[in-house]
């Protein structure tokens, strides 16, 4: 893995913000390095600047020479691989198979589903030339694949015996964007998109809900990001869907991050793309389809949720490296290296992702770097530890000097101790985030306090709501907040909409959002 | 997995060839199905027609509404996933990490390496419009990523400590093509591309050769496709490379299939994209780069190499399904289903990829389908087997009625028997292909017989060669054959080029190629 160092491209700032990379010297030397690592802006002061700095300096991403496109560097890709591993296993466990569909969608095909076109055409990149040939029909680069997959399903599906079709695709998609924020808003991004076809509305809805739950479990149990799952309001619905469901996380600046969506498409796409089947009763019917997706945006949510002023804090299940060993070599005494290598080998054999950092930088520099990179556990071994047969375990989830951050243990219990500790850290990061979410989910009781909370980004502002688009638009115009997702009213809830006074129909989380 | 059935799109023929899908009836019924499965043209009569039919009917791929683009269906994607799994593990074992780079390359950037531009620009798809905006600079869709990755390496690399950089990317790429042949020639295809940067020419060459060997091992040990590894002639070299190495397989029609390439790029890209480093001696130097790639074309080679008149024969290590159980239900006696399920569970637990086919088609239809799909081992269990506690193992690598094709064994030894049998089948498929390759590698001794062999596609025609481009061009003009790859002359070899009589410099395999 490349070492932490100055990036020539770092001075580019996201969204034209105020922060610029502060490193200007030559290749990082031992002497200046720790100072440089500290040059991440405090998270609480300017989340945006902190976020960009961490993404670049922890070498998750680089900006590229292509406007709107980032490079996912090996350490960032390590996060993506863990997301893929966990989600893909969940997809397969629920009966889905992977496939791959073309990147291109002919213009005429894209135009068939009216709402879908209207929703996506402002964001589409068009290929108009191939080699030296001007195309007679431009090709859209997929912003999502309902159209091309629906077209294939229309060819593949003949009878009820062919249903359900349960397919997922891991792919790159392109949506024309001006702004760039690593993971959160990029022109090209990596995602997965599931596309299924069913014989009945009921089954399609069940699939939609099942995948929403797969996403919720991934977000909470793997990424340690607590979310609210619910249905989207009409205005926030996917273009062409009957209902859209989402999981929504809350970022430290009080903005919500939509982290995955699951769409019940009803028969809209089936009718637009003529996807029919002969049912058991011999009648030709349109299928019911669903689609659902999670992108690398989820990684942005993970970074913002868990990071601190020292950098990333990666939940163990998502960590490219779970444990890093730092042997401390003093006055030519390098016995610690052998101790670390032997312990690391034992952990690797037990299935953990481990590295021994034998580079010739100072320990202080390494501590800062691994803090920045958010490795859940660091193990330090110095000459005195070698004499005593001990090692110092340092937990990244605890603050510097916090009780339990450092523990000295016998080297030979490391392999027994660390798996449990990783679980504890996973849980602790989730608990911290859950506490934040719960303490930032205020129930607004009246219009004035509700609007003030929306303006102040008080969190996921929870109200009884009328579910009228006009009401949502008014709140948005006044405060910038929109509904994130909705759930049924309880009998104990207010009878009238907190925002407008009309009869309440649902409970809604309002928030400004990414 | 979707069942075998008529594809409405099947009637489209590849390369304007003569074969058309013969199915014209309604959804396949039990009665007509076995006949339909047999409607694959004989492999020996028309490989091209056989190939297209197998790819479509085994549901590896479908044609798409986008010219030149195919859909990789779940069963085909299963092959790709196994390729990925094996290659990715080899890459990681040799110290490489995955990353992801942008799909787009700005025109001005692509134009910097002259040979590279000349080689690729006729094949580039161009994005000229984003949303409603006409771009001031068109964006190329990557035909390969040397340019964008080299640009990033120029930013990332500062000193010798940053070297080597060993990165691989799994990605889609686009090369503008008129013809479509599933896997072999498509406008968009999936591949991996490794890109590395090194401090010395020696190290870059070592990397190039290491990855060539990784590819050779994958082709032979996993895909069971024997290959010749060697260096390409100048005319066949990658645009911008110092040397290109390849592995070349021989297809049953006597044409060679280039199955992977590994390029030593020297300092060509480093100079064009200004990739420099401060060496230990403080001097600023250009790095040495390599790139290497294998695409889904390898799957086309696997299909053509192993298939027979009944369809695919997939080597077990690449098989999406290694074992399929067909329980035979007669007169309501369905005890075989439980026997199969229990045995299948045991195999699954032991790590094998297994399915029980409980669909309500006739056994004969299922046999034909699993033959077509090339599953290495089928296990049949009928009512009499249940009484006797036995099962019939049917090997796909042996012909119908061939000795050892079917063996009756006790059900309770299946889990012990099958792993060894899978290894045997893997080896047997390799051996068959190896015998074919060796018996089709004639050494031509004089010009006339050499040219006749080239014209007749006699195989990998092995000659002492002068290594002159003008000689190669003359052979190509006369016969269509080119050099596939080269290796050093031995002292016992002819002193003069068999093709032209000039002094011999190397040994070369000549063949017509895909």
Outline type of chain A:
globular
Number of strands of chain A: 22
Query: What does the oligomeric state look like here?
Result: homodimer
Largest interface: A-B, 70 and 70 residues
The average pLDDT of chain A is 91
Biggest sheet of chain A, in brief?
7 strands, mixed
CATH homologous superfamily assignment of the largest domain in chain A: Bira Bifunctional Protein, Domain 2
Q: Strands across the major sheet of chain A, in which order?
A: 3-7-8-14-11-10-9
Number of domains of chain A: 3
Determine Rg of chain A (CA atoms, Å). 25 Å
Outline the low-pLDDT stretches of chain A.
1-38
Report the total helices of chain A.
15
What would the CATH topology of the largest domain in chain A be? Answer: BirA Bifunctional Protein, domain 2
Q: Concise description?
A:
The structure is a homodimer of 514-residue chains. The first copy, chain A, contains 15 helices and 22 strands.
Keywords, separated by commas or semicolons:
homodimer, BirA Bifunctional Protein, domain 2, alpha+beta, seven-stranded mixed beta sheet, 3 domains, 514 residues, globular, Translation Initiation Factor IF3, 15 helices
Q: What's the SSE blueprint?
A:
The structure is a homodimer of 514-residue chains.
Chain A lengths: L32 H6 L8 H11 L3 E3 L6 E3 L1 H20 L3 E2 L5 E3 H4 L3 H7 L4 E6 L2 E9 L4 H11 L8 E10 L13 E11 L2 H22 L5 E4 L11 E8 L5 E9 L3 H5 L3 E3 L5 E3 L1 E8 L1 H10 L16 E5 L7 H15 L4 E3 L6 H11 L3 E5 L1 H6 L1 E6 L10 E5 L3 H26 L7 H10 L4 E5 L3 H11 L2 E7 L17 E6 L3
Parallel strand pairs in A: 3-7, 15-16, 15-17
Antiparallel strand pairs in A: 1-2, 4-6, 5-6, 7-8, 8-14, 9-10, 10-11, 11-14, 12-13, 17-18, 18-19, 20-22, 21-22
């Amino acid at each position: 893995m490349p070492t932490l160092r100055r990036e020539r491209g770092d001075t580019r700032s996201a969204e034209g913000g105020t922060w610029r990379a502060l490193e200007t010297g030559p290749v990082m030397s031992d002497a200046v390095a720790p100072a440089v690592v500290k040059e991440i802006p405090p998270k609480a002061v300017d989340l945006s600047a902190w976020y960009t700095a961490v993404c670049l300096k922890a070498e998750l991403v680089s900006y590229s020479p292509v406007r709107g496109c980032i490079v996912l560097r090996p350490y960032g890709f390590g996060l993506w691989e863990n997301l893929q591993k966990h989600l893909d296993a969940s997809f397969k466990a629920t009966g889905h198979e992977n496939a791959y569909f073309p990147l291109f969608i002919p213009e005429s095909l894209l135009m068939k589903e009216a709402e879908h076109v209207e929703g996506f055409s402002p964001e589409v990149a068009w290929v108009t030339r191939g080699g030296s040939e001007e195309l007679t029909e431009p090709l859209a680069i997929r912003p999502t694949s309902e159209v091309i997959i629906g077209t294939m399903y229309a060819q593949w599906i003949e009878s009820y015996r062919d249903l359900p079709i349960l397919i997922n695709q891991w792919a790159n998609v392109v949506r024309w964007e001006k702004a760039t924020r690593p993971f959160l808003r990029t022109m090209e991004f990596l995602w997965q998109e599931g596309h299924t076809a069913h014989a009945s509305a009921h089954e399609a809805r069940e699939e939609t809900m099942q995948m929403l739950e797969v996403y919720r479990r991934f977000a909470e149990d793997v990424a340690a990001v607590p979310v609210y799952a619910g249905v989207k309001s009409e205005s926030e619905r996917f273009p062409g869907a009957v209902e859209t469901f989402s999981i929504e996380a809350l970022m430290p600046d009080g903005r919500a991050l939509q982290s995955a969506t699951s769409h019940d498409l009803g028969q809209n796409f089936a009718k637009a793309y003529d996807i029919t089947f002969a049912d058991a009763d011999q009648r030709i019917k349109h299928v019911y389809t669903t689609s659902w997706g999670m992108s690398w945006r989820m990684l942005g949510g993970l970074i913002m949720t868990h990071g601190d002023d020292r950098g990333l804090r990666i939940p163990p299940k998502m960590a490219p490296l779970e444990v890093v060993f730092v042997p401390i070599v003093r006055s030519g005494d390098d016995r610690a290296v052998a101790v670390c290598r032997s312990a690391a080998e034992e952990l690797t054999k037990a299935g953990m992702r481990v590295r021994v950092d034998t580079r010739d930088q100072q320990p202080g520099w390494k501590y800062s770097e691994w803090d920045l990179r958010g490795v859940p556990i660091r193990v330090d071994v110095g000459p005195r530890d070698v004499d005593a047969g001990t090692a110092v375990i340092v937990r990244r989830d605890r603050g510097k000097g916090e009780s339990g951050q450092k523990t000295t243990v016998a080297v030979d219990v490391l392999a027994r101790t660390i798996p449990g500790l990783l679980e504890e850290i996973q849980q602790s990061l989730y608990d911290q985030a859950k506490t934040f979410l719960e303490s930032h989910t205020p129930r607004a009781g009246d219009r004035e306090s509700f609007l003030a909370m929306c303006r102040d980004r008080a969190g996921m502002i929870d109200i009884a709501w009328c579910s009228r688009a006009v009401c949502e638009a008014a709140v948005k115009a006044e405060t910038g907040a929109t509904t994130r997702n909705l759930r049924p009213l309880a009998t104990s809830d207010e009878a009238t909409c907190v925002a407008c006074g009309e009869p309440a129909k649902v409970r809604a989380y309002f928030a400004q959002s990414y």
